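Dear support,

I submitted the protein below through the web form. The confirmation email said the job was done, but the results page showed an empty box. After a refresh the structure appeared. I'm attaching both so you can tell me whether what I see now is the final result or a partial one.
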Amino acid sequence: MILIIPILMVIGGAWMKFWPPKDRNRYVGYRTKASMKSQEAWDFAQQYCGKLWLGTGLVMLVLSALAYRFIKPIRNNPAVSVLITLLQTALLCLTAVPVEKALKEKT
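What the results page shows now:
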């Protein structure tokens, strides 16, 4: 369970970085008011967020796998796994802060 968010971040980050959605849309990609302002902002946001998610996801994946392997309470206590997953989800959401800051500086 604790590997789901990091794996999704790695996959999503790689997808946004290497195969980003070309055109602004309401369905796929990093979509905020700032990223939707122009095609240039859209392209920048996809690349920046993709790079951030890829790096953050890889670090979380390694740390989570090591924690699961070597810290016995994580394997035996579902509450600890849920707490870790919630923290990972919070970190995923917090990645919007540097992306929005970079978008603000860029545009």
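Response: this is the final, complete result; the empty box was a page-load delay. Residues 4-21+39-106 form one domain.
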